[in-house]
Every structure is written in structure tokens, then in C-alpha cells.
Design brief:
This protein is α/β, with parallel strands linked by helices. It has helices at residues 25-38, 63-74, 86-94, 104-107, 110-120, 137-149, 177-185, 195-199, 205-214, 241-249, 261-302, 309-321, 323-326, 330-354, 360-368, and strands spanning 14-18, 42-44, 79-82, 99-102, 127-130, 155-159, 190-194, 219-223. It folds into two domains: 14-249, TIM Barrel, CATH 3.20.20.70; 261-352, Chorismate Mutase Domain, subunit A (Up-down Bundle). The protein contains 15 helices and eight strands. The termini are far apart. The protein binds phosphoenolpyruvate and manganese (II) ion (MN). The site of manganese (II) ion (MN) has 4 residues, from loops.
Length: 373
């Protein structure tokens, strides 16, 4: 798949902002006016709201489309809204909505995505595809493919974080490695960070937007409401236009590269050292696995199970206790040592199950021992 840009790159970062939901004509126009002055490129407002529990505010529906039309015509701000059904697509197209987005609860459902894709056939409107609720990159790519196969080329991905049971810090855990992988596979797909739905609270918005800039994202989607405590949906995460302006003013925008050859020479010098260290690290891993294989031979000879919980606990504790002196995060150490353990089990398993006959003498010894005496 090849993706032409949804918006021009000189607009980087593309600023998409507006309330979670369109609530009234006054609210929509008031916040759109304020955002126009802040330099926002695309105004967002949900008309049909996918709410987790029934009896919540489910959006104003079709009425809101006329308010969005006023934003386009009177305030001269392009608009975007969420579509979750084929008939939403028909309605937004009739009202001249500039860009549509697929929400996280839609991306998880191929039937819904296909229905929307079918309604979009033959239309040139750009489409933003939010990540699915669960951390499944294939589902995200699948939704993008369905829209692409409907003939839409101007597609961008919106990273809004992933549901994780028990997660406390974020409303939706970002798992930055997933959008990074998406961008690796599709380098020309523009990527937008919806930091409001990742954070779920205003305190983390700034640093999450900065992380997105550091990772070379193309744009930001932010929920902005004239009076957040009174918002009918997502009131805890929305900010005022003044807070939005302040957040933008302290954002450092990064560029993807430079023509300055001195910079690249300096970087090359450091990168060469990094490559050498990586080579050494993996060489050491390989030697570690050879030792694990030797252990496998001994365990095989005595029919001892590979997994030894007490030993594994000691290894883990020993490595984790080094965390602060090595200046490495606990999550990193845990992920590495867990991966090393899995690889080690794999190597031992091969030795124990594929190797030729175990040591005969050791076998005889085991046979002669009566376990129940
Ligand atoms: C929204 O943008 O208001 C929304 C419902 O988002 P998501 O689909 O990411 O939950
Ligand atoms: Mn919302």
C-alpha cells in the first residue's frame, strides 16, 4: 500500500482539536472560534458517541452535522467526525464533512469497518483510522487495508492507546512499539497521536504530546472543551482552549532529518560504537545459551524438568536488584530477563528432546532407585 499525505507536510504537526462530543450549537461554535485563533487545522467533534455503558450521553446525532457545517462555512475551519455505520458515512458526506475517522471500537470489528469501506467507495474523503481497543497491530492494519481497498488513498493512522486491565497511569496504555512498528511497515502513512484518550487526564497530556513529537509523529488530536467539568462525555480528560494554547507553546517540534553532514558524521561515530556493543551483547547471549544447553544435557541424563522455579526466582531477583545501579528501568530488565529465560528453555528443550540416547549409565542408575522407598 502507498499512501499520499492526508495533509501537507509543512503543516507538521497537524493539529486536530475540538470537544469529545458536539453538545450544542453554541458550544461547538464557541470552541471552534477559539481553536481557529490557536491555529488548529482540523476541528473534531463526535456526533454519534460509542459509549461503554448504556444510559450515557450518546451524542446529538444528525443535528450536529448542521453545526459542523457552520464551523466550516462561518469559521473556515475544516471538520472531522467519527463514523461507525454506513449510514453515518452517507450523512456526513451530504453535509460536506472534510475528513472522517473510525473509532477504536469500530476498528476492532471487521464487519463494521467493511460496511464503512463499502459506503466510502468512489468518494475522495480522507479517513483517519484509530488503533483498535486491543493491542493487535494486525487488526489495525486490516482496517486500513479495508479502507484502502475501497479506493481511499488519503489515510492516516491515529494512535489512541490500548485497553489494559489494571493499568493505572494511563487511561489507555500507549505501547509505543505498536505505532512504531506500523510506521516501519508503512513509512508514508501519516501518524497522529490522540493523547487525550491515551492519558485520560490533563496532567499527562504535555509529556505525551512531546513523546509523540520526539517519535516523529505527524500530528496531534486533542479534546478541547469550553468548560470541561460540564462536558457530557470524557469530562476528565478535556482541556480549555487556553490550556490547549499553553500546551502547544511549550511543545518542541522535532524534524525528521537535516542536510548538515557534520551532524550525521557525529551520529555515525556513536552509532558504530552502538553496533559494536550490540554485537558483543548478542555474542554473549549466544554463549549463555551454549551453557544452557550443557545444563540441558545434565537434566536429560537425570530426567530433571527444565523449569526450576527456585533458580529462576534467584536469577530474576539478582538481575532486578541491579536495576538502579545500571540505570535501567525495571520493566526493561524484566522484559530482557524473561526473554532470555524463554530462549534458554527453548535451547534446553532441543537438547533434551532431540538429542540421541541419554547417557546409559545415568539411566540405569535412575531405574535402580525406587522413589517410594
Ligand atoms: C473520541 O475520539 O471521542 C473517541 C470515542 O475515541 P476512541 O474511539 O479513540 O475511544
Ligand atoms: Mn472522547
Amino acid at each position: 500500500m502507498k499512501f499520499p499525505p492526508v495533509f501537507k507536510t509543512h503543516q507538521r504537526p497537524l493539529l486536530i482539536a475540538g470537544p469529545c462530543s458536539a453538545e450544542s450549537e453554541t458550544q461547538v461554535l464557541e470552541v471552534a472560534r477559539a481553536l481557529k485563533l490557536t491555529g488548529v487545522h482540523l476541528f473534531r467533534a463526535g456526533i454519534w458517541k460509542p459509549r461503554t455503558r448504556p444510559d450515557s450521553f450518546e451524542g446529538v446525532g444528525y443535528d450536529g452535522l448542521k453545526w459542523l457545517q457552520r464551523v466550516r462555512e462561518e469559521i473556515q475551519l475544516p471538520v472531522t467526525t467519527e463514523v461507525a455505520k454506513g449510514k453515518h458515512v452517507d450523512a456526513v458526506l451530504e453535509h460536506g464533512v472534510d475528513v472522517v475517522w473510525l473509532g477504536a471500537r469500530t476498528t476492532v470489528n471487521p464487519f463494521s469497518v467493511q460496511e464503512i469501506a463499502d459506503a466510502l467507495k468512489g468518494v475522495a474523503v480522507p479517513v483517519l483510522v484509530k488503533n483498535p481497543l486491543n493491542a493487535d497491530i494486525q487488526l489495525w492494519i486490516g482496517a486500513i487495508e479495508r479502507i484502502y481497498k475501497a479506493g481511499i488513498r488519503r489515510i492516516a493512522a491515529v494512535h489512541r492507546g490500548f485497553y489494559k486491565y489494571g493499568e493505572k497511569r494511563y487511561r489507555n496504555i500507549p505501547y509505543w512499539q505498536i505505532p512504531i512498528e506500523l510506521k516501519r511497515q508503512f513509512p508514508d502513512l501519516q501518524l497522529i497521536c490522540d493523547h487525550s484518550h491515551i492519558c485520560g487526564t490533563p496532567d499527562l497530556l504535555q509529556q505525551t504530546a512531546q513523546r509523540a513529537m520526539d517519535l516523529n509523529y505527524d500530528g496531534l488530536m486533542t479534546e478541547v472543551h469550553p468548560n470541561p467539568p460540564a462536558a457530557l462525555s470524557d469530562s476528565r480528560q478535556q482541556i480549555t482552549p487556553a490550556e490547549y494554547k499553553k500546551m502547544l507553546s511549550s511543545l518542541i517540534v522535532r524534524v525528521p532529518g537535516t542536510e548538515d553532514s557534520l551532524f550525521w558524521r557525529e551520529l555515525d561515530h556513536i552509532r558504530r560504537q552502538i553496533d559494536e556493543i550490540d554485537d558483543e551483547v548478542f555474542q554473549l547471549f549466544s554463549e549463555r545459551m551454549k551453557l544452557a544447553e550443557q545444563i540441558g544435557v545434565h537434566k536429560r541424563n537425570r530426567n530433571i524438568s527444565i523449569y526450576q522455579p527456585a533458580r529462576w526466582n534467584r536469577i530474576r531477583e539478582r538481575i532486578l536488584s541491579k536495576g538502579s545501579s545500571l540505570k535501567l528501568a525495571k520493566e526493561f530488565l524484566t522484559a530482557v530477563i524473561d526473554a532470555v529465560h524463554q530462549e534458554s528453555i527453548q535451547h534446553q528443550g532441543e537438547v533434551m528432546n532431540k538429542a540421541p540416547e541419554p547417557d546409559k549409565a545415568a539411566r540405569e542408575k535412575i531405574k535402580s532407585e525406587n522413589l517410594f522407598k
